[in-house]
UniProtKB/TrEMBL annotation:
Gene3D superfamilies: alpha/beta hydrolase (3.40.50.1820). Transmembrane segments: none annotated. It holds the Pfam family Esterase. This is Esterase family protein. SUPFAM superfamilies: alpha/beta-Hydrolases (SSF53474). It comes from Paenibacillus hexagrammi.
């Protein structure tokens, strides 16, 4: 049984009204153990916020890592998404993708940094996402490199459109990417078709390495499900917050 201390945490539910998206977007904000407004904190920004909190158990995992493993306290911001528009927002060819990127950079970041003692250096903002959430996190960094340079990708959906953008880059040495892929993800069915995520991630890795990305690439047995990603989340957080 897990230590009861891991469940004594503060999670604030909020929402942000977005001009770019023409709607209010729910947020989940984790405040770390010992949270003090007089201090400052790095922030982990998660796509699929509800899933990162409910299935990824990021609040419990980060609390344990802070209390028992000496990890630096951090704020987590989970940005919820409507499953009916998720692909449109997260996929680089989606019709709402550009608007979502603008929302994140122009509206969400100022919203959080006005209300919480969040550090504003780009090395103190970590983008995290699974599948297409990993894709949109990478594209946020590529399009707003003054704001973001650190990305956690859990089985990212990196296909031709993403690689086309990467191929145009001359130097990605400023980008730090934690990239995890499960070896059982060779036939993943999505609403856009069935893909070999292992092949797609390996092809993307090769391109990232050519562009001198600071890449931490991991392959291990695992399926395209939260049961796999949840178990790997602590290592990903340690990579950037240790």
């Amino acid at each position: 049984m897990e230590d009861s201390r891991y469940y004594k945490r503060t999670i604030v539910k909020d929402e942000i009204v977005s001009t770019h998206l023409s709607e209010a977007r729910p947020l989940r904000i984790f405040l770390p153990p010992g949270y003090n407004e007089l201090l400052s904190y790095p922030v982990v920004y998660c796509q699929d916020g509800e899933q990162f909190f409910n299935f990824g158990r990021i609040a419990t995992t980060l609390t344990r890592c802070i209390l028992d493993e000496g990890l630096e306290p951090a704020i987590v911001v989970g940005v919820d998404v409507d499953v009916t528009t998720r692909t449109s927002e997260y996929a680089p060819e989606g019709e709402r993708h550009a608007a979502y990127l603008r929302f994140f950079a122009d509206e969400l970041i100022p919203f959080i940094e006005d209300r919480y003692p969040a550090r504003s250096d780009r090395t103190e903002r970590i983008l995290a996402g699974d599948s297409l959430g990993g894709t949109v996190s990478l594209h946020l960094a590529l399009n707003y490199r003054s704001l973001f340079c650190r990305v956690i990708s859990l089985s990212g959906a990196f296909f031709d459109t993403t690689r086309e953008q990467l191929s145009k880059e001359t130097d990605l040495s400023w980008l730090e990417l934690y990239m995890l892929i499960g070896l059982d993800e060779t036939e993943v069915t999505t609403e856009r078709g069935t893909f070999d995520f292992v092949h797609e991630n390996r092809a993307t890795r090769e391109l990232l390495e050519q562009k001198k990305t600071a890449l931490h690439y991991i392959e291990k047995p695992g399926k395209h499900i939260w049961g796999f990603w949840q178990q790997e989340l602590a290592d990903a957080l340690h990579y950037f917050l240790a």
